[in-house]
Amino acid sequence: MSGSTYPISELVSGTFQLLSQVAGRAGRGKLGGEVLIQTSLPDHYAIQAAVAHDFRAFAERESPGA
């Protein structure tokens, strides 16, 4: 079985959301933390926006007509 049952936009949104959550949790507490992301698409806008903690840039790119 190949492919996904989810639309690409939901997968991209989920990726951004998950990376943002992980980064936020890693930064909590006195010691802070570090998140390492291994990807074959480092220039993808969802990855870049998550790394920059830039929800606005992600939302603008995801909005219809962008």
Gist of the model:
The chain has 66 residues and is mostly helical. The chain contains three helices and no strands. The mean pLDDT is 85.
Defining traits:
0% strand; 66 residues; mainly alpha; 3 helices
How would you describe this structure to a colleague?
The protein has 66 residues and is mainly α. It has a domain at 42-66. Helices cover 52% and strands 0% of the residues. The protein has 3 helices and no strands. The model has no long low-confidence stretch (mean pLDDT 85).
How is the topology of this model organized?
Elements: H1 8-26, H2 45-51, H3 55-62
Helix pairs in contact: 1-2, 2-3
Work out the strand percent: under 5%
Q: What would you report as the Rg, rounded to the nearest angstrom?
A: 13 Å
Tally the beta strands: 0
Give the helix tally: 3
Order of helices and strands: HHH
Q: Quick one: overall form? A: globular
**End-to-end distance:** 33 Å
Unreliable sequence segments: none
Structural class of the helices, strands and pairings? mainly alpha
